[in-house]
Design goal:
The chain is of the alpha+beta class and 137 residues long. It has one domain: PPM-type phosphatase domain (Phosphatase 2c, domain 1), CATH 3.60.40. It is built from 3 helices and 8 strands, in the order E-E-E-E-E-E-E-H-H-H-E. Strands 1, 2, 5 and 6 form a 4-stranded mixed beta sheet that branches. A 4-stranded antiparallel beta sheet has the order 4-3-7-8. A hairpin with a 4-residue loop joins strand 3 and strand 4. The radius of gyration is 16 Å and the shape is flat. 21% of the residues are buried.
C-alpha cells in the first residue's frame, strides 16, 4: 500500500509506503531520480505493534513522482519465464528519459516501453501513476 496526502498550498506530499517498491522522485532542479527507500513491511504481514512512519517531499515546478507495483519491475524480456527482469535500474533510467515530458506522455511512454520489453506477455499485474507539478503562477 502507498498512502499519500497532497497539500497543494505547500506543494508537499506526506506519505507512507507499506510493501510497495520504493517510489521514484524526479527533481527538475537537479535533473535527477531519487528512490524513496523508506518502505515498511506490508500491512498485516507482522503483528499490530509495528509502527508505520510518514515521510514527505516538497515539489518544485517540473518535479514528478512515480508510484508503481512490482509488476512493472518484475516483467521479463519477451515475457519468457526465466528471461531478463526489467528491474529497478531500467525503470529509473526509463523514468528519467520521460520525466521532462507532460504527465500523460510519461505514463504512456513507461507503459508502452514495458509492454514492448515483455512482448505484451505480462505475468503479473501492472499498476502505476505519475504526479507532476506544472509551472506555478
Amino acid at each position: 500500500m502507498f498512502y499519500g496526502v497532497l497539500e497543494p498550498e505547500t506543494r508537499t506530499i506526506s506519505y507512507c509506503s507499506a510493501g510497495h517498491p520504493p517510489a521514484l522522485f524526479y527533481s527538475a532542479r537537479n535533473d535527477s531520480i531519487t528512490d524513496l527507500t523508506d518502505v515498511h513491511l506490508p500491512i498485516g504481514a507482522t503483528d499490530a505493534s509495528v509502527v508505520y512512519s510518514t515521510s514527505s517531499i516538497v515539489f518544485e515546478p517540473g518535479d514528478c513522482l512515480l508510484i508503481y507495483t512490482d509488476g512493472l519491475t518484475d516483467c521479463r524480456k519477451t515475457g519468457v519465464r526465466g528471461g531478463e527482469l526489467f528491474g529497478q535500474t531500467n525503470l529509473e533510467k526509463l523514468f528519467a528519459s520521460f520525466a521532462k515530458k507532460k504527465v500523460e506522455s510519461i505514463a504512456n511512454g513507461i507503459f508502452d516501453h514495458v509492454i514492448h520489453f515483455s512482448s505484451g506477455k505480462m505475468r503479473d499485474d501492472i499498476a502505476f501513476f505519475v504526479i507532476k507539478l506544472g509551472p506555478t503562477i
